[in-house]
Amino acid sequence: MYSNVFSWRHWLLLCLSGLFSVFAFGQQSKIHSHNDYLRKAPFWEAFANGCASIEVDVILVSEKLFVAHEQESIHQARTIENLYLQPIHQGLQTGLIADPMPFFLTVDIKSEPYETLKQLMKSVEPYQDMMYNAQHDSGLKLVVSGNRPLPQEYGDYPDYIFFDHQDVEDLGTISLDKVAMVSLPFGNYSQWGGKGRMVEEEAAVVTQVVEKVHQAGKLIRFWASPDSKSAWKALHNIGVDFINTDKPFEINSYLASLEQRYVGSTIKSEIVELNFENDEVQRQVDNVILMIGDGNGLAQLSAGMYANGNELNITNLKNVGLAKTQSADDFTTDSAAGGTALATGNKTNNRGIGVDSNGQSIENLSHILSKKGFGTGIISSDHITGATPATFYAHKKDRDMIGPISQDLYGSSLNLFIGAGKNDFLRYQNHALDSLKARGFSLLGSLDQVASSTEGKVGYFASNHGLPSIEKGRAGFLKNSTEAAISYLENRGAPFFLMVENGHIDVGGHVNDARMIVEEVIDFDQAVGAALKFASNNPNTLVIITADHETGGVTIPQGSVADNMVELEFSTDDHTGIMVPVFAFGPYSGDFSGVYENTEVFDKIMTILLKYHAKTIE
Q1: What φ, ψ does residue 66 adopt, rounded to 5°?
Q2: What b/e readout covers 168-182, taking b as 16+ CB neighbours within 10 angstroms?
Q3: Annotation: CATH topology of 287-315+363-613
Q4: pLDDT for residue 27
Q5: Triad 422, 428, 433: Cα angle to 5°
Q6: Pairwise CA distance, residues 521 & 261, whole Å
Q7: Is the pLDDT of residue 527 over 60?
Q8: 3-class SS of residue 583
Q9: How far apart are alpha carbons 345 and 364 in whole angstroms?
Q10: Are strands 496-502 and 375-383 parallel, antiparallel or unpaired?
Q11: Domain 25-259, CATH homologous superfamily name and number
Q12: Average pLDDT for 181-186
């Protein structure tokens, strides 16, 4: 076994940067690697995952300390020296392990304690240079658990030997200098199996025990505690110092990221008071506002709702459906194919912008409606050449053809665009920016100018490159842009179509950033609130809110409605095939309920408009 230990060397070097993360989420919880010797790489797996206590069961047989739970499972090569003392010593010599060591070795004695302890002290004699020295306050600590001497005898043992005390009633009567931690059977205090949550009475009992041990100035561990994510979080929040686990990799990954995944929001979406008198009614529709939360699945929407006081403008709507998002050539769509389905009513291959699966151009909503007298506009927190906004004006086989896509914008019939990425019209030296102006676009310097403009075609670049996230300073942009665009289009005195996209929900999903997702959903809802407020006061306006796909495979295992906090977990850093919600408000909003393909959003919009604009829409 000893000869194989350093086959893990290269793997460990990759892990070193994250070895000893301490979970700064309330108190500091540490990991106790239960029955560590049963793993494929005893010691090293626990070490690589930052375990602060590494447990090894030992049995004394013929003056040897074998690593086993019972005599029947003893293997001659598996001794405490081979599996633990020698690897730790060589790890120190090679620099893989630093001193002071961020872990101790918990030796669970399964045989008679006094003779076993004598042999343990003999076994460490060749390694005295690495054992704990009180004067220097460094070195490896051995914490004796299982069969132990009497508490009053703890002080009879060398500096490097401490004890895992297993009684909470005598803490005020014994010397605690040699007690490293107090370990208690979880089943004595709770029957909880680690799913859902503990009942309040049992949680109170466990909390009281933890507080009692802490009052004595000692750390606590429960053995035989449930070993699940729900249990880890519950024990962590209660204040348990060492969480007992057989899953060191999983718990390290979970707890190390918990602070970043359990989040609230620094912004709030004010709830608009809506007039539902014209909701669902069959009356003329002149204006359509299509709002797309890129990557905004049901979990993202739920997370934003819980963090916003358990309410969003979106979730106050009465009519909701679910859209399937598969592209023509893949189960999981990208934004280009997802946006094309919404903009044109056609499935296309991933990466395709405004083209069918054969690469042929397809008319989009903006173009169809513009030809017949509708004002048309698009807004995005992304580059205006980004995949989703581009599907409403461009026709290219690949979303990364940014130079040609920028040329399609100045050749489009849009009246309005607002977004980021001015540099996309400069960096290819194709005169795209000059062409925008030559084709009649007035490039304005502020949203106020957009709102009051009487020009036939206007554009506003909000930045030369990308816009920041809400956390980094973009708050209010999407709502203000929506209000400015509505003012501009309304002032034209004609029916209008407006698409509004938040592209940063998708970004949060890709980088697995829980706070970004929550705040971007709330930001999106602020813009939705502006659109709904207009629709509520203008009964010929239909608002549809949907997404092109879900990003991140997000779930919400826990949260607090009272505290506006939510815990997110991610199953991927890419898109998924999960259906996305479709909300609607205004005339014919009921037509958007049910389950259908994403292409039907286009079909439903066109069907409704044809009822009242058949003479102008072919």
Answers
A1: -90, 145
A2: beebeebebebbbbb
A3: Alkaline Phosphatase, subunit A (3.40.720)
A4: 54
A5: 45
A6: 15
A7: yes
A8: strand
A9: 8
A10: parallel
A11: Phosphatidylinositol (PI) phosphodiesterase (3.20.20.190)
A12: 98
